[in-house]
Amino acid sequence: MRIATYNVNGVNGRLPVLLRWLEESAPDVVCLQELKAPDEKFPEQAIRDAGYGAIWHGQKSWNGVAILARGCDPVETRRGLPGDPEDGQSRYLEAAVNGVLVGGLYLPNGNPRPGPKFDYKLAWFDRLIAHAATLIGMDVPVVIAGDYNVMPTDRDVYKPERWLDDALFAPEVRAAYFRMLDQGWTDALRTRHPDETIYTFWDYFRNAYARNAGLRIDHLLLNAPAARMLEAAEVDAHVRGWEKSSDHAPVWIELGT
């Protein structure tokens, strides 16, 4: 089973790129982020015509997450993180697909730091960690995938000294990421590429993609049953070079039997 995460940076504006990649890569499950569309504007028919069932949690202009499943409909198990009933931002969706529980997330950016957006990011991360604690011990494969908006280590960012004041590289945010890993989650991409420079995001400015001046902020975390099945983890970096592409590239894992 191939499970992918892809921040599309606007599902309608980038729809041709998304459909091209779905046809090329044929992932079994895809977690999408930054739909930037209300529920009624989600391109359900185009996704279905491409062979995918879908569930989505949209929001006008901002945020928004979806889970696609090839040849079937994801069975939704959760919409939104527990812990804050007043949180109206569309950032988390969870579904069962062919025996795997998949959580798709778009963690807050948190800039500027310090400030209320950074406080919200830390609080949201705490809620994610609390929810992840209820999933880590499941005896079925669990994958929590998405745009975490955190570079865990210096190896995950081009010229880390330039990011010291940014919310994506803040010590508190990196510490939260490792608190989650300490529950027993496996960072699939880093596990398969322990010493490589590997990025998932390249800014539109300063010719970042051509210079490979990137960030690794899109992650797939696996519980123990999923980690035992892990056969591959890769970034489709070439997709970032397509015309009118997102500033993120799709990231995927392959789970065996």
Biggest beta-sheet profile:
6 strands, mixed
Count of helical stretches: 7
Poorly predicted regions: none
Gap between N and C termini, in Å?
9 Å
Q: Can you tell me the CATH topology?
A: Deoxyribonuclease I, Chain A
> How many extended strands?
14
If you had to describe this structure to a student in words, what would you say it looks like?
The record marks 218 as: Important for catalytic activity. Its EC number is 3.1.11.2. The protein has 257 residues and is of the alpha+beta class. It has one domain (2-255): 4-Layer Sandwich (Deoxyribonuclease I, Chain A), CATH 3.60.10. It is 24% helix and 27% strand. It contains 7 helices and 14 strands. It has helices at 15-25, 44-49, 116-135, 171-181, 188-192, 208-211, 224-228, and strands spanning 2-7, 29-33, 52-57, 65-70, 75-79, 92-97, 100-106, 142-147, 186-187, 201-202, 214-215, 218-222, 230-235, 251-255. The strands form 3 sheets. The protein has a 6-stranded mixed beta sheet. Strands 5-6-7-8-12-9 form a 6-stranded mixed beta sheet. Strand 6 (92-97) and strand 7 (100-106) form a beta hairpin. It is globular and about 45 Å long. The termini are close together.
